[in-house]
Amino acid sequence: MNTKKRVVVAMSGGVDSSTAAAILVSQGYDVIGVSLHLFDYSPYTSTGFGTCCSIADIEDARRVSEKLNIPFYVINFEKEFKNEVIDYFVSQYLSARTPNPCILCNQKIKFRHLLRKAKEIGAEYLATGHYARIGFDEKTGTYYVKRGIDSAKDQSYFLFNLTQKELPSVLFPVGEYTKKEVRSIAKKFGLKISEKKESQEICFIPDKDYPSFIKKESALQGFDAGNIVNLKGEVLGKHKGMPFFTVGQRRGLGVAAKNPMYVLELKPETNEVVVGSKAELRAESCVVEDIIINGMPEDFKNTRCTVKYRYRTREADAVLTKLCGNKIMCRFLKPQHAITPGQAAVFYDGDRVLGGGWIAKYEKCKV
């Protein structure tokens, strides 16, 4: 029993974080539920708040807390979310990169600002509903992130940038269960959200309309018309702004071609979208910057691992080489498709997350 250990649970109103709170209550922790107010949807949609951290979700979290008989609070991090997540998201798109704001939200909002608040009220831990686990290396005395038991739901990819500063104070209660088991546990606790659907969208963008959101936030910067070209520089068509495109994109290019065409590269310096065949999209290596390492020596050389370079892609076998300036050269053993600047590349050794960083550029295979 853990009756003297206080834990704050970040409750989104979904089944995973609600079940995480229920599990901790059953284990005897002193549990406090907290929901975060992050974003006001009203300027972007006539329907008010959307999914994830909406008013409806916060009310779901409140009802779960009442059912579990735990205190519940709402914390307003709207300013922090705007400065550290939304502004990052927009600036990355305007720099011809495709960002993953969920990773930054975890790092900056949950495991920095919320963890700090949790400590201020005497909590030893912050818990979330992520499908991941925490491991401990007895040889080095360090903590690390592990995959969740449910391989189909594993979210360790989104947590690669947690460090020794945060990891000792983090709990992932549902990481030991499958999604099916989590829903079953929620039912046993009588939680009405046990069958609630998951949100698959970026929480602050209604209807997945990225360009419209970026237009509002950037005052139309980055939406100058430009050329769509092939690798030879030949003009194939026109585009209405680079934020409409991402590396690997096939649909909506506005280019008539005999064979399918894909976005190969975005060139902000010339405002060009480079397109080509699927074969021309293959990459043999990429440079990963701003790396965080939790499972390798700082001066490592030629380390074999697997790399996940997008959340929905299969991992690829690769060799990592340390570069200067907190960068890594990631060389794939087999060519990979659609390596996208701005996305995270996360390094694994089996179930263990070794670290990761942000893709800066990639080297195309010679066709």
Automatic annotation (TrEMBL):
Any single biological process term in GO: tRNA wobble position uridine thiolation
Domain tRNA-specific 2-thiouridylase MnmA-like central: 223-277
Record EC number: 2.8.1.13
Keyword RNA-binding belongs to the record: yes
A family per Pfam: tRNA_Me_trans_M
Keywords: ATP-binding, Cytoplasm, Disulfide bond, Nucleotide-binding, RNA-binding, Transferase, tRNA processing, tRNA-binding
Domain called tRNA-specific 2-thiouridylase MnmA-like C-terminal: residue spans: 288-359
Keyword Nucleotide-binding part of the UniProt annotation: yes
Catalytic residues as annotated in Swiss-Prot or TrEMBL: C105, C203
Record: residues binding ATP: A10, M11, S12, G13, G14, V15, D16, S17, L36, G129
Location in the cell: Cytoplasm
Catalytic activities: S-sulfanyl-L-cysteinyl-[protein] + uridine(34) in tRNA + AH2 + ATP = 2-thiouridine(34) in tRNA + L-cysteinyl-[protein] + A + AMP + diphosphate + H(+)
Record region (Interaction with tRNA): 153-155, 310-311
Transmembrane segments: none
Site, as annotated: Interaction with tRNA: H130, Q343
PANTHER family: MITOCHONDRIAL TRNA-SPECIFIC 2-THIOURIDYLASE 1 (PTHR11933:SF5), TRNA 5-METHYLAMINOMETHYL-2-THIOURIDYLATE -METHYLTRANSFERASE (PTHR11933)
HAMAP family, A to Z: tRNA_thiouridyl_MnmA (MF_00144)
Main function: Catalyzes the 2-thiolation of uridine at the wobble position (U34) of tRNA, leading to the formation of s(2)U34.
Name recorded for this polypeptide: tRNA-specific 2-thiouridylase MnmA
Species name: Candidatus Schekmanbacteria bacterium RIFCSPLOWO2_12_FULL_38_15
Phylogenetic lineage: Bacteria, Candidatus Schekmaniibacteriota
